Amino acid sequence: MHAFNYHRPSNVNDAAAQAVKGESKVLAGGQSLVQAMKLRLASPSDLIDLGMIKDLAGIKADAKAVTIGAMTRHADVAGSAEVQKAIPALAALAGMIGDRQVRNMGTLGGSLANNDPAADYPAAVLGLNATVTTTKGTHAADKFFKGLYETALKPGEIITSVSFPVPKRAAYTKFKNQASRFAIVGVFVADTGAGVRVAVTGAAPCVLRLAEFEKALTAKFAPESVANLRVKPDGLNTDLHASAEYRAHLITVMAKRAVAAALK
Is 148 helix (H, G, I), strand (E, B) or coil? Predict the structure, then answer.
């Protein structure tokens, strides 16, 4: 690990001001950044720790949406009675992330800013058409995720909260890596009442939506609506865990399971 300057601001404005200086990095839960620093894959000049900013954590829910602070831990989302009541699929997804240590240290904002191709939260944000609020404005879900570890965030822009619209019904299922618990393929299905959104993580360099699946499920929200749909492996990930062809097969399997779970 290279030497760096450590900052622990007490408010968002100070954090944002410090984040634009030098080769700064913002530290949320540290589950990805610290490991990258240890391996010298990341070498920030300054580390901006958001842990003391109380305004960045918390959960608020009403009949229309669940708003979660960027520094809210995965375990808090999974255990929240408000989230479990309003969007049980979101609480369930948070409970599937990593192991207990990861869930008690990792944060919503950190996960989204990092945008790991196998992370779970991006599927919920895209599947539920959430709005990401930052120190510089808001980002619609469809325009937030840009590519491999890439988002619409600008230098110094810090996620402050995410607002998830309450769907009519939703569910998330994933085929996980048994060691890391990252998604080899994860599918989030949400029936908004006005249409269906299907978001896939783990399969490609970045989370994506499946228009053909959405059209079929909007016409009839049932597992058999997607049972015969196939995803082309072109552009999907191939690694030591699964080939692109296998991931393409898993997308249909996980989508069917997600729809069945949403109907329970």
Answer: coil
pTM across the whole model: 0.94
20 and 121 belong to one structural domain: yes
Regarding whether 129 and 15 lie in a shared domain, the answer is yes
Cα(77)–Cα(261) distance, integer angstroms: 20
How many domains are there within the chain?
Answer: 2
CB atoms within 10 A of CB 14: 14
Q: Which long-range contacts (CB under 8 A, 24 or more apart) does 82-91 make?
A: 83/59, 85/61, 86/61, 86/166, 87/128, 87/164, 87/166, 87/167, 87/170, 88/170, 89/124, 89/167, 89/170, 89/171, 89/172, 89/188, 89/190, 89/262, 90/66, 90/124, 90/128, 90/164, 90/170, 90/172
Same domain, 154 and 173: no
Phi-psi group of 195: left, alpha or beta (phi > 0 → left; psi -120 to 50 → alpha; rest → beta)? left
Residue 185 belongs to domain spanning: 169-262
Closest CA to 174 of 237, 66, 115, 261: 261
- Which tens digits make up the pLDDT trace of 115-164? 999 999 999 999 999 999 999 999 999 999 999 999 999 989 999 999 99
